Amino acid sequence: MENLSTIGQSLSRPDAPEKVTGKTRFLTDISVENMVHGAPVYSSIPFGKFNNIDISKAEKVDGFIAFVSAQDIPGENQVGVIISDQPLFADKTVRYIGDSIGLAVAKTPGAALEAARLVKVDYDKKSPYLSIDKSRDATGNFIHKTNLACHHRLRNGDIDVGFAEADTIVEAHFKTPYQEHYYLEPQACIAFPIEDGRIKILGSLQCPFYIQKAVARIFGLPNEKVLVEQAPTGGAFGGKEDIPSEICARAALAAMKVGLPVKVVYHRFDDVQLTSKRHPFQMHYKVGVRNDGTLVSAKILLEENAGAYATLSTVVSYRAAVQAMGPYVIPNIHVDSNSYYTNLPPTGAFRGFGSPQAAFGHERMMDIIADKLKMDPMEFRLKNIVKPGSQTQTAQRLNESVGAEETIQKAARLAQWNSFNPDRSGRYKHGLGMSAIHYGNCLGAAGWHMDGSGVNIKILPSGDVHVAYGLIEMGQGAETVVTQMTADALGIAPSRIRVLPTDSAQVPDSGPAVASRNVIMTGNAIRDAAKKLLPVLKKAASELIECHKSDIIITNDKVTDNQSGVDVGFHELCDFMSRSNMSMEFTGWWHTPPLEYNAETGVGEAYFTYSYATHIAKVRVDTLTGQVFVDKIFAAHDVGKAINPAGIEGQVEGGVAQGIGWAITEDFIMDRGVVTTPNLSTYLLPTALDCPEVETIIVEKSEPDGPWGAKGIGEPSIIPTAAAIANAVSSAIGIQMNEIPLTPERVLNQLNKTEIKK
Amino acid sequence: MKYFRPNSIDEYHELLVTLKETSMSILAGGTDLMPRWEPDKGLMPDVLIDIKKIDGLMGIRENEDEIIIGALTTIQDIKKSILMQNEFGSLSEAARQFAGVQIRHRATIGGNICNASPAGDILPGLYVHQANIQLIGPNGSRSIPISKFIIGPGKTMLEPGEIVSEIHLLRKGVKSLFYKLGLRQSMAIAVVNFAIAYQQDSNGAFTSLNIAAGSVAPTIVYLESFVDAIMSGVSLDEAIQHVDIDISPIDDIRATADYRSTALKNVLEYNFRHELHQGNE
Ligand SMILES: Cc1cc2nc3c(=O)[nH]c(=O)nc-3n(C[C@H](O)[C@H](O)[C@H](O)COP(=O)(O)OP(=O)(O)OC[C@H]3O[C@@H](n4cnc5c(N)ncnc54)[C@H](O)[C@@H]3O)c2cc1C
After folding, report:
1. What ipTM describes this predicted complex?
2. Which residues in chain A touch residue B189, judged by CB atoms under 8 angstroms apart?
3. What is the topology classification, in CATH, of domain A16-22+452-591?
4. Interchain contact, A682 vs B191, CB within 8 Å
5. What is the pLDDT of residues B142-169, one digit of tens each?
6. Architecture of domain A281-445+598-757
C-alpha cells in the first residue's frame, strides 16, 4: 500500500491566484519588440472558385506591411490533421464562409483588419450544400472528391436473428445541434522568426505537437526546427486542438516573410465564423428488446455534419460509433457512422468528441423503450448495464474498474428516484430524467499509434523539483494533479514542485492534450520517471546518511534511514547530490496498453478502459411558455481514483453547465453559411441562474492501468447531461423530445401540437 | 474622441455652444452606448459628453402627489427602493429581472428610456403608470408622457441638446405587476414583457386597467382592445383574442412572431385568471 499524502486531497490550484486577480498574462496582454499584426482574409461565399486576389486597396492602408497567401508557401499547402483535404490558404476553391484566402499584416491590429477588409476577391459561385441531407443526396459537383468525409462501422452479432428474437422493436429519430466552444480567450498566437532559420510559436493552444508538425509541413522543415510554447490558455474545450495549427502556420508564414514577430488574435465574430464547433448529428435508432427488458438487437445510423473539411471528424465519428449504444450489454448490433462534408464551418473536437451526441441517442432511446415496456427507466437500465465480466457493444470484455451500475444506484438514491411522484396538474410540470454513459479513455484503437506521453523531472540543488510535461493546462487543473502525482510518486511536499509551461523543446511528442487523457498519461509517465529516479535518490541518501540504501524511505518530504531513524530533509539530499555531481534529470514515458481491434468490423478492444457516469436531472417545464428550468443535477462519476476531489467537482459542475447550455439555451444559427449568433448577446450561454446546484458523487473503481487507479473526468462530465434533461422534460410533459436545444419555442410548439391532437 | 464631463446643466449647455463636432453622444451608464462602438471600424462618436456628474439627476424623491426619479438613477437603486416596491410594483420587479448585477449597477433609467428599445424592461411599467418624462434643453424644460416621448425603435422626441432629467410618477394607489419572458434566467433580452396596472373594487371588478407589452411591436404598446374587451365584460377566453389586434410582432433571431403572440396570450390569460381572479380559475 502506497502512502498517499497529497493524492486524494483537494489541493488548490497553483495557477488560481494569478487568474482570479487578473494578473495572468494571456496572449492579448503580451507584446514583444517589433511585433506586427495579422488579420485573416476569408471567403465571403460558401462555395465557389476564384482566380484573382486584388490587394491594391489594402496596400494603401496606413501601416500595411504585407499580404500572405497560398503562393507564399514553400512547403505543402496542407493543414488537414488526419485527412489531407484542407489547404492552409485556399487554392482557387473556397468551401465555406471563413475559408482562408490570406493574412493581411500591418503595424497595428486596426490597420491589419482594415487591410483585410479591403482585399478584393472575385468569385464564381457554386450552389452550396448547407445540410447533411443535401450533401448525402448529391449526385455530382461534390465539395471534395466525394461528399462523404468519413465512415465508421460496427458489425457485431447478427441483427436479423436479434430482431427476430425481440418482443418489441422501437424506432426513433434524434437530432443534436452545433455547439460553439466559446472559450473566453479567442484564438491567438505570436510567431517569431529565429535568425538560424528556426521558428518559434507562442500560442493559446491545446496540442503543441500538432502545431509543430503543421508548421514544419508548410515550410518543408524537420519538426524540430519549429519550437512551440504554450501561453496561459483561457479555455479550449477541444476548440484549440486542431484550429491553432492553421492560425500558427499562417502567422509563421507571415513572420518569415516580413522577418518580424507576427501576432494574430481573432475577433470574436471571426472566431465564431471561422473555427470549429461540435458536430450536429442526426441519428436513427432501431432497437429490439424482450418483454423482460433485455436488449437483443440494434441497428443504428449516425450522420454527422463535418463542415467544409474533415479535420477531426474521423475520430469523432469513430468514438460515436463505438459508444453508440452506451454502457449496456447488447449481443447484436450494427452501427454506421457517416460524416458528410457541407459548405459550413468545419466541425471538430468539442469536449466529449461525439459522445454527448451518441449519449443523446442511446439515452433517449432507453427512455422511449422503457416507456413502451411500461418499465421504470432505471430498472430497465440496471437490467442491461455492463458489469465486470460483461462485453461491450464491440465485444470487448470488461474486467475491472466498471462502476456503471454503482453510478446509477448512487445517483438514484440521492435523487430519491423511487419516491418521485410529482403533482402534474398545474402550470409547471416537474420531471426527473436519468442518463448513463461510458467513455473510452485516451485515444483508443483509432489513435493508438500516437497514444504515448512523457515527462521530464528535474531535481534542483535547492530541493525544488521542475516537471515538464507534454500535455497542457487549459483551465482544467492539469498543473494541480501533475503536482500531486509527482509529490506522491517521490514522497515529497507539493510546495517543492513547479510544473513548467508546456514547451515542445522540453519533452518528446506526447500526443494531443485531449480525450481526458492527462491524468492517465502524465500520471503514468511520472511513475515511470519516479521508478528511475527513486533508486538514484536512495543511493545518494545512503551515502549521505551512511547507511544501507534499502533502508531508505522517502515520505512526507523526509528522507529516513529506517534502521537508525536518522533523517534528512529532501532539500539536503538534493544539495548533496548536486555537490556530488550526480545525475538529477529523469524522463518518464507511458504508452497505452495494446488493443486488439478489427477496424473492418469495429469489433474488439476500442479503448483500454472506460469512465462511467450517471446524471439525473430534475426539471420544471412552464406549459404556458415552454421554458425549461433545471432545478437540480445529481452527477455520479466513476473516476477510478479521485486525484483531486475538488478538481473533479469543478469539472463536473463545468461540464453540467456546458451540457445545460447545449440542451437548452445555446441555439447556434446560420443563414446560408453566415453565423447569425456571433456574440454573447445572441448565442446564449447559460448564466449562474440557469445552472442549478449540482450534487457530485465520486465513485472509485480502481483501474489497474491508471496511475493510482485513476481514469479521466474532463469529458465524462458533459456527456450525460443533455440526455438527462431531455429525458426529464419528456417525462414531465409526456411528449418525447427528440431534438435539442429545448428552447421555449420548440417545447411550446410540441405542447401545442399535442393539445390540438387531443 | 473628445470626452467632457460637465458638473451642472448650465455647464452642459455652455459646452454645447462651443462644440463644433458633428457626431456627439451623451453617456450615462454606457451599457447601450458602448457595446455599439467598434473602434476598429471607426464606429465611435467624435465627442462624448458624460452626464453622470451633473447635479441633481440621481436618486428617487417623493412629495405628496408624485414620485420623482432622477434620470441617472441606476436600475439597482430602483430595485432596492422600498418606495418603488410598495407603490410601483411593476417597475420594482422589472428592475429585479434586469440584466445581471454588474449591469444593474451601471445602467440608468434615463438610458433605458432614451434607448427606446421595443424590449426595454423598465418601459412597460412606465407606460402603465403613465409616467411623464421631464426634459431640459437649451430653450428650457418640458414634460411629455412616455408613450408620446418614444416614437419608434431607438427613436424619441429628444431635440438636439436636450436631455432627460427626471421621470414623474403620480401616486394614485394603482397596483401593478410585471412579467418578463427571456431565453435564459438572467442577462436576457425580453422575448415578451408586459406590465399590468389596475385598481379593483371590493368585488374584484376593475375600476381602472392599463396594460403595456414589449417586444411585440416597434415600440411598447398598450393592449387597448384587450383592456376594452375586459372592461366591457366579455369572457376572458374571448377577450384574450383581442390581444392580436394590439400587437404586431415580428420573427427575429430570438423567437417567431407566432411564439411571441402565443406566449403573451398564455401568460396574460393566466395572470388574469390566477393573479387578478377573473374568469374561472
Ligand atoms: C449585458 C447587458 C444586459 C442588458 N440587459 C438588459 C435588460 O435585461 N433589460 C433592459 O431593458 N435592458 C438591458 N440592457 C440594455 C441597457 O443596459 C439598458 O437599456 C440601460 O437602461 C441603458 O442605460 P445606460 O445608462 O447604460 O444608457 P447609455 O448606454 O449610457 O445610453 C443609452 C442611450 O440613451 C442616451 N441617454 C442616456 N441617458 C440620457 C439622458 N438622461 N438624456 C438623454 N439621452 C440619454 C445615450 O446617449 C444613448 O443613446 C442590457 C445591456 C447589456 C450590455
Report:
1. 0.96
2. 681
3. Aldehyde Oxidoreductase; domain 4 (3.30.365)
4. no
5. 999 999 999 999 999 999 889 999 999 9
6. 2-Layer Sandwich (3.30)
